[in-house]
Records
---
Amino acid sequence: MELRLPNSAHLGNIEGFVRGFNPDGKADELSLEIHPKWVSVHPAVLAMSATAGATMIANGGLVTAKVPQIKSLPYLVRMGLFDVLQINPGITVTEHEEAGRFIPLTNVRDNKGLSEFIVNMIPLLHASPDEAEPIKYVISELVRNALEHAVSPVGAFVCAQYFKKTERLAIGVADSGIGILGSMSRSHPVKSSMEAITLALKPGITGTTSRFGGTEYNAGAGLFFTKAIACASRNFFVAYSGDALFKLRRTPSGQTPVIHADPNDDIATRVEGLPPWQGTVVGIDIGIEAHKTFDDLLREIRGAYQLQVREGRKARYKRPRFA
Amino acid sequence: MTVINLFELAGEFAEDKDIARNIRIDKLLPALANGETVEIDFAQVGLATQSFIHALVSDVVRKEGPNVLDRIVFSNCNSSIKSLIRIVTEYSQDQID
């Protein structure tokens, strides 16, 4: 298996990194290649790299890398990549407070670990409660999805980075489980990874039942909500699983973001025939300039849900009682 | 009336679906079965996930029907949590057993 950390791999251009992934080659070795001059990558890339390495190590294999002494190396060290890969980067970095910049790679293996992680990560971001709400929400839904559906031998890896210049928070979550096709095909007649990803992004569809609306425990709406949060803040959302990648493109300024319940209506890049990733990688960017509250966003999501329902039926909804 | 203090059970960020399911099975459903009205108190809960609210009430609405919402009071909810409750209770009514 081979992975290349390129000069640049963010959600806008992540296809290049994915195409450079080679799942074949030596079955008991992950070879990591790092760009010799500069590396600037999205947390989703780091989460996928960490997951690949941890899975290789868990299976008794080894991870090898030639680590160039480049200016961006301290960033990779601070994000914890080499700790996960069990590689000596050849430098030591003085630890200082991580506030306001990033959440290093964290391996979450169970619900308790997720709850602890969420409590511990928020102070690292120095975010206001309004800013922290969508971040907590997205990480909870994505990691819990991975823990519940992926059957991943190494759990999930998650990390995040705040980009001050563009006022966005980038989050990456990866697992090495059965993938979205493996999960969805338990209950739905899907034939390809792209078909499975498309289905998984529709609210009310879950791999745990063929019934629309899910079960008493799974609503099948976690990925839809996550994509909607990216959409509403005019940012990217990427899901890569098996040989398929779905990328929600950014809504151009001047246009109003529209949340679609059916991902086929999204303005998105859809690529098939990629090097197959055994598992799922999700990357999302969230604008945290706080021009829009989380409640505003939820109202828009509610509207997207209701578009699926006939007007007459909407009027007959029993309303919940608030006090 | 049975009062369920959600903060005591789920904390400031109500996101653990296992906790939600346990509340539904151990507290909410038995009280409703006794004919009681149930108050779910969200005081001090700052945020919840849709998954949590779903695991808490969706099955109740689906199985008991929409009129069960007359016997559940959601108190001290902030606007985000109200939105999530509206979303879940609405789509649950589309999926009545």
Note: The radius of gyration of chain B is 12 Å.
---
Amino acid sequence: MVGLIAVLGSEGAEAAAAAPNWFVQHAFLIPLLCFASGALTLFFGKRTPGKGPVYGILALSAGLVLSLGVLWGIAHNGGNYEHDITWFTIGSLQIQLGYFIDGLTGVMLLVVTSISLLVHIYSLGYMHGDKRYTWFYVVLSLFTGAMLVVVLASNLFELLVGWEIMGVCSYLLIGHWYEDHANSSAAIKAFLTTRVGDVPFMFGIFALVYATGMTTSNIQVISETVAGGHVSVLLVTCAALLMFGGTIGKSAQFPLYTWLPDAMAGPTPVSALIHAATMVAAGIYLVARTFEVFIHADPIALTIVSIVGAITLLLAALLALVQDDIKKVLAYSTISQLAYMVAALGLGEAGYPAAMFHLFTHAFFKALLFLGAGSVIHAAHSNNMSDMGGLRKHMKVTYVTFLIGSLALAGVPPLSGFFSKDEIILAAKGHESWLAVVLVLGAVITAFYTTRMLLQTFFGEYRGTQHLHESPRSMTAPLVVLAVITCFVGLLGFAPVGAPFLDWVYFGAPEEAIFSPTVALISIVAVAIGLYAGWVTYRRYREPDPTLELGGFSTLLVHKYYLDDLYFNGIVRPIRDTWSAGVYWFNQNVLDGIVNGAAVVAYGLSSVTMWIDRNIIDGAVNGTGTAMETFGKGLRTLQSGKVQWYAVGLFAGVILLTAFFVR
Amino acid sequence: MIRLPLVLIFAALLFSAGVYGVLARRNAVMVLMAIELMLNAVNLNLVAFAAALQDVTGQVFALFVIAVAAAEVGIGLAIVILLFRNRASINVDEVDLLKW
């Protein structure tokens, strides 16, 4: 019954979208191109001139064009498009393979393909001469394809497949330089920590499939079923919270955010692609895609989402204050900015477009910041800001673009971060005033640590020992492109110029874009306070860092709230030292015992077989030969060659015959 | 008329002498001669029985044997000559190449 609705529903949707254009109908090509380029690079990469990146860059250029076409199609014709084929059927449960396209999908496609393309180009310079250069591009393509599958997936199982491929790829990329033990540990940590969130996510899927009467995992059908009100609120609430577990893991929210800073062990372009722009966005995207479930759950679910966002926002922003590693500052700021989106999603329909807009702008300026940091690291040969300083004189392009990215992150108008953060604060102000306060507080801290990072890296005197140089063209070009995008993309959500973004991405009905001068003023003041405080504190480089001289508070921050220690001593250690020891003992003594015992028995049996073979079978063969030889030796004496002996035989024979016959 | 048993005993003695010659002599010519002795012992038997039984078949057979014996001696002596040419000996003991 519900399956029937699914078919009717999707057909109805197709009919409503007045003739979706070619790009929308062929959107499935985008991830396929990525997978194809991954396979081509894997098999032919090393034999291709340039060692392989050409496939990925071509595929993503085509993907970017297709994505622009999709977004254009959506913007022009409106409506949604869905196309499914049946993947497999289990009893009444029909799992489909297909793609669903609406404004949100279009925007995400654009974000993923454009940033991934720029990262591909950037890596030409950054990864130049790496020993696993080709392999790096293989995984990069595969990763992008997986993210695109998540974005396009029309049902939850398909989404889960992309989600997990992404998990594997992030494991491979974080551990790209696995010769260093710290890197491989970080890869394992990222993989296992996100897995903690993936388990509830999977059970959330099961709960939603159960809610449809075990018929389908199609997101649209699930949304309609949940919205239809025939499903118990308790079940929907459970499903929503379980799904949110996946988001907490993948989008690095409290309490599972600990993996993301460690994941900075990977190459910097990977951090830009995975840990800023795309993979961590998947968690946010998941909530947005299944937003009907959250809306129709008990209000407590959305409140929990908001609270998690608010806690993460403050905790991560404070942690960014004490980091010396420039990538870790960015990592914590990513967590904090993702928390902004999560908090906004928790506001319900009002926060939905704001969250998505922040996701959109954040992807660009955070990719810009990571790539800029990569450029800095490339020059300074160190991740630590204590080894930097004064770089603005040596790296002009990096400096200007990084400055733009930083100001966007801080939320300085008219850069993109200002508009999206503003929208979130505006949405919060109307619904949950306490959240608005937290968000503004977060904006102050963000501006402060951004200033700290900027001043320590680019201002003052150079404290390192390297010969500084600007990065190659392949690295600066993506920076410039991203800086330009960062400057202007915010206007897409600016009410006075029409805010086209809100026409593409909305929940329910398109919302009227609002611009509140009050909120804008509050946020500008907050940013100004943060910037000024940062400038006063870090105008001159000080050793040790002032944020490390706040007594117990600094100790708490340096130890990352002891959360990592708690996980390590409370979960990893006990399991590793007791269960693992037990498993090890079991393996060594019982499993190996069985294996060794089997070997001993087999050895004994084969010795018996060997004895039989040697003595009886070979004995028969050799015995035959020996017997023949002995017999032949005996007979040979008869053949003496002496004619007269033969004659003796002849006569003797005659006599015998005669005696026999005559007798 | 001579009595048949006497002739047969004589022929048997003659044949035995031939057998001894064939088996015991080392000179190939002597061996051939011993074979002649055996053949003629048989001839003597044939002729004796022909006379005793009043049947000419025996005599005819004896004539055939004589003819065959002549041919046999011809070939035998030829072999002996070749043997002598090749090995400078007509000792049958030394002609033992045809063994294993």
Note: Chain B is about 80% helix and 0% strand.
